[in-house]
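[[Local backbone shapes]]
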Amino acid sequence: MTQNTMEADKEKMILDATCGSKMMWFDKNHPDVVYTDKRKGRFEAYGNITVVDPDIQANFTNLPFADESFYLVVFDPPHSKWLGPNTILGQKYGQLFSNWEIEIKAGFDECMRVLKQHGTLIFKWNDKDIKLSKLIKVIGATPLFGHPSGKHGKTIWMTFMKTNKTI
């Protein structure tokens, strides 16, 4: 373990690697979850306030946890090319970077690194700007199963299991 690596709290079995404002969580302070995000702060756009308050501030491409620390990892990275930093959605979800292929692949690999063997990765993606087929090629892994959701069915929830075949 390097100096920058933390032991995951043994009571915390779940990692949200990109928690943002924790919008998907029913319990935004679930006792089994470590919430991480590279951002921290209170953001305002057009009268709407977004609070990003992770337990640990960290980039999803370099998580400060030992290998195989969590049973479940949630990965909901930014996925829109066109959100500016001062838009409501840009503040809620973050911004996709120009080198998104490198960042998303590194984030997927990092989530798999901290996931225990036979653990589950839930990956949420919206394919409005970048199609799911392109994302699958970039990460180099096929989900076990998934489900489209949202008004137009563009948000895809995918499930991966860490096995020797996915790492």
In short: Residues 14-161 form a domain with the Rossmann fold fold (CATH 3.40.50.150). The chain has one domain: 14-161.
